[in-house]
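Regression test attached.
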Amino acid sequence: MSSGRELPRWLDLVVLPLFNLALALLVCGVVVLVIGLDPLQVLALLVKGAFGSRIGFSYTLYYATTFVFTGLAVAVAFHGGLFNIGGEGQAMLGGIGTALVALGLADTWPAWLVLPTMVLAAALFGMAWAAVPAALQAWRGSHVVITTIMFNFIASAFLSWLLINVLKEPGNMTVESRSFGPAAHVPGVHEVLAALGIEWPRSPLNLSVLLAAASAIVVYLLVWRTRPGYMLRAVGFAPEAARYAGIRPRAQVMFSMLLSGALAGLVGINEVAGVHGRLLLDYVVGAGFAGIAVSLIGRNHPVGIVLASLLFGALYQGGAELAFEISGFSRDMVFTLQGLIVLFSGAMAQVAAPTLARSWFALERRFAARAAHG
Amino acid sequence: MDDVAVGTLLASTLRVSTPLILCALAGCFSERSGVIDLGLEGKMLLTAFTAGTAAAAFGSLLLAMALALAVGVALSMLHGYACVSHRGDQVVMGMAITMTAAGLTVVLGIAWFHQGGQTPALPDAVRLAPWFSAPAHWLSDAPVGLKALALAVLGHNGLVYVALLLVPVVWWVLARTRFGLRLRAAGENPAMVDAAGVSVQALRYAALALNGVLCALAGCYLVLAQNPSFIPHMTAGRGYMALAAMIFGKWQPVGAFFACLLFGFLDASAIRLQGAPLPLVGAVPVQAIQALPYVMTVVLLAGFIGRARAPKALGVPYAK
């Protein structure tokens, strides 16, 4: 902060993200106006689509599940002082790990054994894909931003090779694997609720949502409440001081990237095992990049990330409904908004924050003066 | 392979490489001045959309290119405003540009043209015409090597030759002019530039302006030459591949140029090589060839084949 004074916590943690979100929404409102629609009507329909019905809300939570995974992945790397743009590729590998376990074991093993193995495989595959850029950063000094981008493209080529040359069933025209056995099916929330006697509409929302919630809690405890987490944050916050304190930076680079990759890999559980029940080409579709926006607006904290994921889940679901209701409206509006959020709360963070700080301190002085007079 | 096949393969290599070359040169300018540009992809996409839309709406090649250039420079100025003036995170800014462009082009394209995000097919009047077409008799009765050469280098559109010409020009500007020396110094040791009384900010803005122009040329090429219309997400990762080529070329224009040709050649030959057995390695899956540029760049960055050294102050905002 240029003034050297710190904003009150509530202003920094709550008002600032909302302010940046409002700026992004404002620009999107202008775009909506430009294409000849009424922004307020669009917003109302969006909220209705996302929260107005039980099924809409279920979809919102389903999308949010994926964003929690990729958002946490970005945040964990960020606290270690690294920018992991490879969530996309790590999520693809997570899906591959999920699918290989499901295809190999689901016909013979029982579900209670297959499901944990799948989760483990998803995390390990994502981890493995993050390990190479991490090791190159730690030992060879190769910039992790560039190598993780490269690994996204390599992952995408690998996935398409694997599907076309190995997993595709002969005679099937679509590029996809065969369906998994029932033991590899992550139960849908509607199925679980039905078993409990509660009627709930069918949706892609599945028990991965609990895995996402657990991940958020684990990340919070691990990063903020344990010694390894403290060392990780120390390296991210002040690498030289951390090194002086005897923390080995290489181990921390590996630790934060492996954790990050494992979290991104879990996307495979939600999408591949939870929804599609088979391996496809495009089950990640930008989730890794959405994670960047989620983590930025959620201030890299699990609580913020869960809230931001709900926001983005609502936007994805509401956007899909909108595209259905208004002809000429594209769901890609949400991707635009996502980019603008990255712009305002990430790249331009130094633009909005000082403005907010200046007006807050001016307000504070005014009150102080009035109190002195009063 | 006969020489017609060789000629066409080389010609398509050149065509595929052109947007990579333009973008990689754009990257050279900004990164040598100290500003990371992960927004090449987004800048190329948004300028391509601008060119396609303007060409469809106004039917003027000149206006289409002028507007694309204006948008390219404007995006770069936004980049500068956030990252040079306000010292924002350069990596995040690049992602922001690319993500916003990917969404915005589809939204506007669908709303304006109602064709799923495509612009209508552009008429020949607004497309870049081929230059230096080879006379027919050259192709029929020229000696063997010459025929391949004629097929490879003649009859491309103007931007292909502009891109080829720009390689030595950018090299000369960066390596041999006072402006280029200062620009490189701003990327290596900005404090020294500042101490010499030259504005680091002005240099980085200038580098970004040139970067915007070059990205816009790449965008124009995609829409006005390579494809018949704008298609959503048509850059398809070329911006990142250009970034990889620039790194592979060790942040040097000439090195980046050869890397672009290599990557373009891999791209152009991937389709032809599908299923065909190669000497020593057997049949190579097409995906392996597509992934090869990225693998090579990672290997280079890892320092296993020579050392790629980034400008020292790359990614570090300069505070006076």
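Expected vs. actual: identical. The domain at 53-330 of chain A is CATH 1.10.3470 (ABC transporter involved in vitamin B12 uptake, BtuC).
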